[in-house]
């Protein structure tokens, strides 16, 4: 299951995570965000212990979106050791997302 993070929990859940973290910046009004939500829940189960999946509602926490220059939704941002290493904008199929994660983590 994906975990929702807030302004208060972002540092602990994302920046200080021992695992790489894929953050889904989304909003309630965003249809593509809803399209990928079930796939991200699947990935959270499949990648448990390998990559953490976290969600940020940008309407409720606009400062986080602004801090990481999120301009379009959904934006999936991969953090490694507290640093953003890749941003993926827009919905995509699960296989493509897995390949992009694999590529980014193997650098």
Automatic annotation (TrEMBL):
Residues 1-106 form the Thioredoxin domain. InterPro entries: Thioredoxin, Thioredoxin-like_sf, Thioredoxin_CS, Thioredoxin_domain. Disulfide bonds join 30-33. One of its GO terms (cellular component) is cytosol. The active site is at residues 30, 33. The record marks 31-32 as: Contributes to redox potential value. One of its GO terms (biological process) is cell redox homeostasis. Keywords: Disulfide bond, Electron transport, Redox-active center, Transport. It comes from the Bacteria. One of its GO terms (molecular function) is protein-disulfide reductase activity. Pfam families: Thioredoxin (PF00085). The record marks 24 as: Deprotonates C-terminal active site Cys. Belongs to the thioredoxin family. NCBIfam families: thioredoxin. This is Thioredoxin.
């Amino acid at each position: 299951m994906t975990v929702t993070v807030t302004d208060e929990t972002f540092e602990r859940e994302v920046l200080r995570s021992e695992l790489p973290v894929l953050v889904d910046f989304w909003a309630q009004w965003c249809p593509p965000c809803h399209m990928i939500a079930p796939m991200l829940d699947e990935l959270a189960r499949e990648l448990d212990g390998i990559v953490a999946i976290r969600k940020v509602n940008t309407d409720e926490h606009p400062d986080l979106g602004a801090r990481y220059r999120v301009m379009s939704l959904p934006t999936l941002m991969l953090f490694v050791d507290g640093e953003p290493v890749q941003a993926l904008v827009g919905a995509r199929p699960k296989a493509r997302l897995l390949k992009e994660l694999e590529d980014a983590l193997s650098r």
